[in-house]
Design brief:
By secondary structure, this protein is mostly helical. The longest helix is centred in the N-terminal third of the chain and has 29 residues.
Length: about 180
């Protein structure tokens, strides 16, 4: 493989890092709109997924998962409608989902951080911070459900963006396979 072909991947990782940095800054400075924007986006996703699941269950002839598809479709549709039309309930739900997301992401960041040779400390720090953010969300429920998801999501995006930007710059021109 040529040197130019090997080094292409780092530019995409750099772009991801920069976009994450920018989204993080916006979410930190506009936390309530960020919370509601996330609530609406997730609500729209649930509505779309629910509709397609319902259609698969109703019109998907002779498959054993029809009942499951209908039930999941109805639950997704109901959840999406609540998030779209009851944004406070949606924000509380999103706050709890954000806590779960940050727990999973924190554990994943820690696991990958242990495997990295370069950037190990940053990745481990990102994992620890994501776990601390999740703990704070659970501790502050339900009072902070309006602004806290936007702020914490913003900091998570900001730190993730910084981590991946530095990772990309550190690996310019290299193959980005794990362990190289």
């Amino acid at each position: 493989m040529t040197d130019s072909a090997r080094g292409i991947g780092w530019g995409w990782i750099l772009a991801y890092g920069v976009v994450s940095l920018l989204l993080g800054i916006v979410a930190i400075f506009l936390p309530i709109p960020a919370t509601f924007a996330a609530t609406i986006v997730i609500g729209a996703y649930l509505i779309a997924a629910g509709l397609f699941s319902l259609l698969a269950g109703v019109f998907g002839k002779e498959h054993e998962g029809r009942g499951y598809a209908v039930i999941v479709g109805l639950l997704s549709l109901l959840g999406g409608l609540v998030m779209m039309f009851q944004p406070m309930v949606g924000a509380i739900s999103l706050t709890l989902l954000l806590a779960l997301f940050l727990i999973v992401r924190g554990v994943t960041d820690l696991a990958w951080g242990v495997r990295f040779r370069r950037g190990r400390g940053l990745m481990i720090a990102l994992g620890v911070l994501n776990l601390l953010f999740a703990g704070y969300i659970i501790y502050s429920m339900p009072v902070a459900a309006l602004a806290l998801p936007g702020i914490l999501l913003g900091f998570s995006f900001l730190l993730s963006g910084a981590t991946w930007t530095m990772f990309a710059l550190d690996h310019r021109g290299e193959s980005l396979r794990l362990g190289e």
